[in-house]
Amino acid sequence: PLGISGDYLNAVAQRAGFQVKYFPDIPWPDALKHIKNREKIDLLPALMETPDRKEYIAFTQNYLTSPRVIFTREDSGFVDSLEDLANKTISVERGYFLQQKLSDEYPNIKLLIKETTEDALESLSSGEADAYVGNLTAGTYNIKMKGLDNIKIAAPAPFGNLTLAMGVRKDWPELASIINKVLATFNHKEHVAIRDKWVAPIRYEYGIS
What we know:
The protein has eight helices and seven strands; from the N terminus they run ααβαβββαβαβαβαα. It is of the alpha/beta class.
């Protein structure tokens, strides 16, 4: 497992003195079921806190924030908001917070459910989907790594920023507390070093001049 969340978890584990065993190939919905049932998984390194998840997960403090945006292809028409995508197809990851939000609040948009962010962006690049809604950090990283140079950031999404925390099985609140205490020891330079390792500075514009 590679990325910002993995680097944070590895650093926390080293300072706190515990070891981490990764299970990298479990689909996200299954991972949530495992931690809910206290089977196989004890900790999820990156997820958003929601009321239903709080019933079975002890959350740490947030350690990463990224804006949610609408991605389209370079040859797409002008898109200023999700309303411009009525009767169009949007790709989204299975089991993610945005899948439910889009389904509930935008019933006139067709959802194309994909298993990973990479799959969702590739479906947009290939023309299978008309847009992808996701967080800026993961989206731009996958676009760069996969060379999907026909994708652009079209507009902000109306769902606020993605804020990520670590999630621990509910009956282990002590571990969440330990992680919080370790995260509090990180200085600004250490936060920047982890993020800059994976994400180059990003600039984007939207709208009409």
